[in-house]
Amino acid sequence: MARDIKNIVRGTTINFSSDFYAANGARLEAGNASLRLFYRVGGVAANTTIVMDKQSNGTWFAEWQAANIDTGMVEWTVTGVGGGGSQAVTAGTINIIGNRSTP
C-alpha cells in the first residue's frame, strides 16, 4: 500500500509504524522489519536503512530525523520478513518543506 505524507518541515523527527498482512489478509508475524529512505543532501542522492523495533503489541516502529536534507520528495519503504522468507511491503513519499533557516 502506498501512503503519501504531505509537507513535513525539515528537521522534524518522523515516526513510522507498521503492521504486516499477507495477500489473504492474515496478519504476518514478521521476524524482522526495516525502513529504507531515499532523499537528497546538497543535491546528491542519499539513502539510509533503519532496523525497526518490534513493540509489545506486535507493531513495528522506527523514527527518522529529517534534518540537514534537501527539501523535496523523500521516498520510503517498510519491509517485513516473515516465516519462510515471505515479505510484506508498504511504501510512500514524504514532501519535506523548509527554507535556509530550517535546519
Please tell me how large the radius of gyration is. Answer: 15 Å
- Write down the overall mean pLDDT: 89
At CATH level 3, the topology is: Immunoglobulin-like
Overall form: elongated
The run of helices and strands is EEEEEEEE
Can you tell me the CATH architecture? Sandwich
CATH superfamily name?
Answer: Immunoglobulins
| Helix-strand category | mainly beta
Instruction: Give the spatial strand order of the biggest sheet.
Output: 1-8-7-3-4
**In CATH's first tier, which class applies?**
Mainly Beta
- In total, the number of strands is 8
Measure the end-to-end span: 31 Å
What is the count of helical runs? 0
Low-confidence stretches: none
Largest sheet: 5 strands, mixed
Specify the helix fraction band: under 10%
Kindly give the count of domains. 1
Residues in β-strands, percent? over 45%
Structural commentary:
With 103 residues, the chain is mainly β. It has a single domain (2-97), classed as Immunoglobulins (Immunoglobulin-like, Sandwich). Helices cover 0% and strands 59% of the residues. The protein is built from no helices and 8 strands. It has strands spanning 2-9, 13-18, 32-41, 44-51, 53-54, 60-65, 72-81, 87-97. Strands 1-8-7-3-4 form a 5-stranded mixed β-sheet, with no helix packed on it. 18% of the residues are buried. The model has no long low-confidence stretch (mean pLDDT 89).
